[in-house]
Design brief:
By secondary structure, this protein is mostly helical. It contains 2 helices and no strands. The chain has one domain.
Length: 33
């Protein structure tokens, strides 16, 4: 797993995103990459 996704996941956890919002964010990120 790329370190970028890991760091973004940690940032999302710190901001206490809802699980659905975090998954959607990662989904969009994967599409962009």
């Amino acid at each position: 797993m790329p370190t970028t996704l890991v760091s973004l996941f940690l940032v999302g956890a710190k901001r206490k995103f809802n699980l659905s919002e975090l998954l959607l964010y990662l989904y969009v990120l994967v599409i962009v990459l």
